[in-house]
Amino acid sequence: MTRRLFRSLLPALLLALIAGQAWAEVTVTFYAHPGARIRGGDLLFPHAYVHAEGTVEATGEPVDWSAGFTAKSPGPHLLFTRGGGVVTAPDARYVDEGRPFLTLTIADETWHALKARAEWWNSPEGSVYDLRQRNCITFIADLARVVGLRTAPEPSMKPGSFLEATAALNPAAAWREAPAVPTAPPVVVAPIAEPDAAPAG
Fold first, then answer.
1. pLDDT tens readout for residues 14-67
2. How many CB atoms lie within 10 A of CB 193?
3. Cβ(132)–Cβ(157) under 8 Å?
4. How much is the CA Rg of the chain, to the nearest whole Å?
5. Which of 42, 16, 52, 46 is nearest to 32 (CA)?
6. Which residues contact 77 (CB under 8 A, 6 or more apart)?
7. Per the omega criterion (within 30 degrees of 0), is the bond before 74 cis?
8. Tally of CB atoms within 10 A around 185
9. Residue 58 and residue 144: Cα distance in Å, rounded?
């Protein structure tokens, strides 16, 4: 009886495992914001950031994480000197207007390595900000290499140009817009003609 019950449940168990593998993954996407836009009285500067979402396969932990590297105290003094940097979630305005350049699915181990490397950028050794030499693009380039991507030359102060060049080096991970779903033409139903009445007689 037990063996028969196990055999009957086996297909359902296998299906559940396959379905679990399909959704248990983390996807990482690299974005850039073009800057030079005013929102709420603030000038948005060019910025690069990363977003990860999905589910850790081993634990089922949900992932919805974004990070960028920026100066702790922004200001014109950064044109002449280094300052402290910090890894933070990007401003919602950047997220809404950012453009994706690269996306790929990573294993659990790579996800943990990515988070650990991002946290290093908040450490005393890692949190040095230099507008021209060690900025948000340097941070993104470092994380891109952690997940196995080749990166364009650094340093750079143009997030979009850097990520575009990096996407060209990684065509398999380059962002592609989803094809538009064709809209079916409306169905036109022709009225059915009434048969001619038979002559009386």
1. 444 444 444 579 999 999 998 876 667 777 788 999 999 999 999 999 999 999
2. 6
3. yes
4. 26
5. 46
6. 83
7. no
8. 6
9. 23
